[in-house]
Write a structure and sequence with these properties.
two-stranded antiparallel ribbon; coiled coil; Fido-like_dom_sf
């Protein structure tokens, strides 16, 4: 019987790495251009739920950058901020509603860019979507870096590459440019034509050089799509 591989996420290894970063975040902070708030168990738990959701999207074969798929990007942001607990989401109701409005204003530009670059490498598409999401005006009210990392991971794993996962080894090389991207504006000519392109190329190279296969699983499927 013929078979093929479907790539998924190694959630156990991802959790191990994220908790290692959290436990050693003081050490990481000393290397950063701008110190960041420490990671908490809640941050990690929500981010892990986000990676689980990405894994489910891959299993289902959902296409994020389709009219139906765009809602999944919004859901990823809700997850990194609030998790999946309905009670917590009720508490954040007004915030999530405003986030939905912000998302509706910004996603078309990003989706349009992605469609134009569909033939480019997954590294380039993942980096480009991340930069467009994190730069001003940001796609979401909060959680742009975390959501951007999850969307980038989906793009990468969909093409058989490892996801992006924060590690102690790559943390400085990830956080420092991410901080700089946050202060550039898509609607300013110099930022868009020089700085954002520069950061996109740097992030693309970062992905090419640092993605780790231990965070990826290859699931062998038979011709009927069963593992």
């Amino acid at each position: 019987m013929s078979s093929h591989k479907q790539y998924r996420l190694n959630l156990e290894s991802i959790e191990e790495s994220l908790r290692d970063v959290m436990d050693n975040f003081d050490e990481v902070n000393e290397t950063l251009l701008m110190r960041r708030e420490p990671l908490t168990d809640q941050h990690i738990d929500n981010l892990l739920e986000g990676y689980s959701y990405v894994d489910w999207l891959l299993e289902e074969g959902e296409e994020l950058f389709s009219p139906r798929g765009l809602d999944h990007i919004l859901e990823l942001n809700h997850i990194v901020l609030c998790g999946t607990d309905d009670r917590v989401r009720m508490e954040y109701g007004p915030h999530l509603l405003e986030t939905r409005r912000r998302f509706a204003d910004g996603i078309d530009e990003i989706a349009g860019w992605y469609e134009r670059k569909r033939h480019k490498s997954a590294y380039k598409r993942a980096a480009g979507v991340y930069v467009l999401s994190v730069s001003q005006p940001q796609l979401f009210l909060e959680g742009n870096h975390r959501t951007g990392a999850l969307v980038a991971s989906y793009i990468l794993v969909q093409e058989g590459l490892p996801p992006f996962v924060l590690t102690r080894k790559n943390a400085t090389a990830y956080f420092n440019p991410s901080t700089l991207i946050k202060y550039r504006h898509k609607e300013k000519f110099l930022d868009r034509q020089y700085y954002l392109k520069k950061y996109r190329k740097e992030l693309q190279k970062f992905f090419e050089e640092t993605l780790d296969k231990r965070f990826r699983l290859a699931i062998r499927l038979d011709k009927d799509g069963k593992d």
